[in-house]
């Protein structure tokens, strides 16, 4: 959750330093950047011939794909909760 304050952190992603500024907590920013770094290193290790830009794009594609899958799963769960509530309301 955002605390309203702007946080400024210098982080390392795939060997490069970035200054990230945002209203999310320091913990959140670090988690995000660590996940990006981890995914880039994973993709880079499997594809040693790719340059950093291509690794970054593939990382973005992979992470957005994961996000969309989770979003779809969340929607399915919300629909299931709604069905259960409606069923319980009809029986109760």
Keywords summarizing the entry:
alpha+beta; 2 helices; 2 strands; 66% helix
Q: Would you mind describing this structure in some detail?
A:
This protein has 92 residues and is α+β, with helices and mostly antiparallel strands. It has one domain. The protein contains two helices and two strands. A two-stranded antiparallel ribbon has the order 1-2. Helix 1 (26-46) crosses helix 2. It starts with 6 loop residues before the first strand and ends with a helix. The model has no long low-confidence stretch (mean pLDDT 94).
Brief overview:
Pfam families: ZapA (PF05164). The chain is an alpha+beta fold. About 65% of the residues lie in helices and about 15% in strands.
**Spatial order of strands in the largest sheet:** 1-2
Number of strands: 2
Succession of helices and strands? EEHH
- Summing up helix and strand content along with how strands pair, one would put the structural category as alpha+beta
User: In percent, how much strand structure appears in the residues?
Assistant: 15-25%
Calculate the terminal CA-CA distance, rounded to whole Å.
37 Å
Gyration radius, to the nearest Å?
19 Å
Mean pLDDT: 94
Query: Which ranges are low-confidence, i.e. pLDDT below 50, for 5 or more consecutive residues?
Result: none
Main location: cytoplasm
Protein name: Cell division protein ZapA
Subunit structure: Homodimer. Interacts with FtsZ.
Subcellular location: Cytoplasm
